[in-house]
Design goal:
Two copies of one chain form a homodimer. Chain A is α/β, with parallel strands linked by helices. Chain A has two domains: 172 residues, Alpha-Beta Complex (Aspartate Aminotransferase, domain 1); 236 residues, 3-Layer(aba) Sandwich (Aspartate Aminotransferase, domain 2). Chain A is built from twelve helices and 13 strands. A seven-stranded mixed sheet of chain A has the order 4-10-9-8-7-5-6, sandwiched between helices. The first copy, chain A, has a four-stranded mixed sheet with strand order 1-2-3-13. In chain A, strands 11-12 form a two-stranded antiparallel ribbon. Chain A is globular, with a radius of gyration of 22 Å. At the A-B interface, helix 1, strand 1, helix 3, strand 4 and helix 4 of A face helix 1, strand 1, helix 3, strand 4 and helix 4 of B. Chains A, B: Keywords: Aminotransferase, Pyridoxal phosphate, Transferase.
Chain lengths: 427, 427
């Protein structure tokens, strides 16, 4: 394959794709200079269309958990693909995978598979309504649960009716949650929560156990279903539902992204009491029962069970966080690093329009490190401590390059527009 | 891999999957004895978990267009997979594929990719609303456009608000369409149509050109968007949008299933005038930009352009239809075969509860031919005339076996329940 220039690809894309690209991987959401197209990925690294290599802290926005092209996962996928993938019915691996997930995820008694994270959250919403015969579902303000009309952060194409019974509360705020539950009265069907607060543009927050426990108790009192959206964080914090870390079991959990280490697969897992409602839905998709991603997921989960990847993530993430703080301080900067070290969000103190964050991520990109200025990032198990040291050396240079021009950095007009949208409750 | 019994797989599945299976590939919708699980697929054939082989007239419900494991498509997919699949941005193949589709599909000026057919139809719905600033979308009664809350044929988990502005009309009925448009008044956003009427349980109908032209004219008069849902029929009737056969160009078309010959991919294609609205949506998915299915689609489309697969489909389908009618008549049966021969629907005359269709499909299954009693079927390009003759020989035996017990065949209670649901407007 001939290398193609980013500019020529963008010009061609602009003709045949609205805006040249859309969705969460559009560079319209990123600083100038970020490549839109990638020609290759391997382990912890990605290559743009011109052959530049980057240490990838976005991991495909989550799917890359063990490293791109993990040999054992790819081999398992290839073995199944040689037998059959999308067929006229599922393969036996569907049962194997459901059993595997039920055995690993404490609250789960059953599994349903789908393709998008949004499929899983939409099925959770419908299951909660079918289970209770009620309508109102509470969602933390600013949380992302997918891009269907009921949840997309963009306003276009959405009717008020699409979210007539979606009501906000404040993550980690017990009083806010209680007020929203009280207001829902006898029409409360469910409560959504992310495993931790991983909204864009704002500091991440781990779940307060008191909030998690209260959410559970309120669901128990009202009969509503508690739903954890693990699509982004699943298996990055625990080899179980993330809220097992705070001792709270949901009724439903939504999974995707990392489940098959990049193979397209998502899932809704549920407790026994929600089985009847989930089974009453008519939900399906042309590729939902394809076997190859399921075989990849079974192998991914085996590796998760048998390795200490979580300790590896914690060691890498801690070194990155500590090292970045030190490098920033050495050049007169103060960072705001938040969330679990395995899913870092790196912003700057006193940087309300993120102009420093934008400029820093550009300096990092120029040094071969792909970091996101306002979205949580991801580690993958293929990353080594040497990779982290590479990133820290790049950061030292990036801060040094940024320091003398600190006062003259301008905010991005695109970013200002995005921030306005975020302030209005969108993405 | 050890062969597993269907019974043991079903017993295990029942524990960890609601009802043991769900969606369009659930055998709850099929006669007793149909296998739920498949261990292998190749060309035009599938093998169940116990090793029984069937000539597969369902083609994974559509994705299998060229044959399972088509060597050139699989090679193209493998080449891209070796480079990168789900990455932190799309690969150049995304642009190549968008250009390819725009060059093949007459009405299309741009493409957006997604995973499920339902993603494409939901994006079409939102694009129509964003484009017009209006709410009402007309859908032919009984048509299937996906399994999201606004369109799923199942009632559970759905609120009246989810489909508050979805209004029915009768396919091929100009007066009905005109009345629905008039009733929508100045709130009409779009009109959905299938390429032909391929509803379940009833005879299929090719589109009346007068109906297609009137739908186009009504959209032109009102500014609403005309949307063709090609998810099921795409590239099976034409190497262009199916309505090119009646000389009508829609504003949007939805594609999926066959696009990547089994690789998970769907797409929304649109005319220039809808580009701005489509680009204004925030729609996305974790795996939407994965490169491997796009590479498979480019190769699939190349093969479609360069081969006479449509003539092959027509020859196979015509021989099947004529041969089945003759075999049926020889044993005293009359069939109702409807729709294009490339996507046959085979039912029995005077069989309102489909008991004969159920019994016939069981007899065919026992002879190694997988046919569906109430859903349109599919051909694949890997099928040969010898395969069709194999099916016709099986049919001759099946009719012969069915004839003496014709009077004593009982209807399926599960089917009766399904028919009641269909009569109520569902699937």
């Amino acid at each position: 394959m001939t290398a193609q220039t980013e500019a020529s690809l963008r010009a061609r894309a602009l003709k045949v794709i609205p805006n040249g690209m859309y969705g969460h991987e559009s560079v319209a959401l990123l600083p100038d200079g970020f490549p839109q197209f990638f020609s290759r990925a391997d382990g912890a690294w990605i290559w743009d269309s011109e052959g530049n290599r980057y240490l990838d802290f976005m991991c495909a926005y989550g799917p890359n958990l063990l490293g791109y092209h993990h040999p054992e996962v790819d081999a398992a996928a290839a073995r199944q693909a040689a037998l059959g993938d999308a067929m006229t019915g599922p393969a036996p691996v569907m049962v194997d995978l459901a059993e595997t997930l039920v055995s690993m995820v404490g609250h789960a008694d059953w599994a349903m598979f789908c393709k998008n994270g949004t499929d899983a959250t939409s099925m959770a919403l419908m299951t909660a309504r079918a289970h209770t015969g009620r309508r109102i579902v509470l969602v933390a303000a600013g949380a992302y649960h997918g891009a269907a009309a009921w949840c997309t952060p963009g306003p276009m194409g959405v009717l008020p009716e699409d979210r007539a019974f979606i009501r906000p509360y404040l993550y980690n705020d017990v009083a806010s949650l209680e007020a929203a539950v009280a207001e829902a009265g006898d029409d409360l069907a469910g409560i959504f929560a992310s495993p931790f607060k991983h909204d864009v543009f704002v500091d991440q927050e781990l779940p307060d156990p008191a909030y998690a426990e209260r959410a559970r108790a309120l669901c128990d009192e009202t009969g509503a279903l508690l739903i954890i959206d693990e699509v982004r964080a699943g298996f990055r914090l625990a080899k179980d539902c993330s809220w097992s870390l705070v001792g709270v079991a949901p009724d439903l959990s939504c999974w995707g992204k990392s489940l098959g280490n990049g193979q397209p697969l998502s899932a809704l897992l549920g407790a026994e009491k929600a089985r009847g409602a989930a089974g009453s839905l008519y939900v399906t998709g042309s590729f939902w029962f394809a076997a190859t991603p399921m075989a990849a997921a079974i192998e991914t989960l085996r590796i998760l069970r048998e390795t200490d990847y979580l300790a590896h993530f914690e060691a890498l993430g801690t070194r990155l966080r500590v090292g970045l703080d030190a490098a920033a301080a050495a050049h007169g900067f103060t960072l705001r690093q938040s969330g679990p070290v395995q899913m870092p969000l790196i912003m700057f103190a006193q940087d309300p329009d993120a102009r420093l964050g934008y400029a820093f991520s550009q300096e990092m990109l120029a040094r071969g490190v792909y970091m996101h200025p306002w979205h949580n990032m991801f580690l993958c198990a293929a990353m080594t401590m040497a990779d982290i040291e590479f990133a820290l050396a790049a950061a030292d240079e990036a801060f040094a390059a940024l320091a003398p021009r600190r006062a003259s950095v301008q905010p991005s007009p695109r970013l200002l527009a995005l921030l306005e949208q975020a302030a209005a409750g969108g993405h």
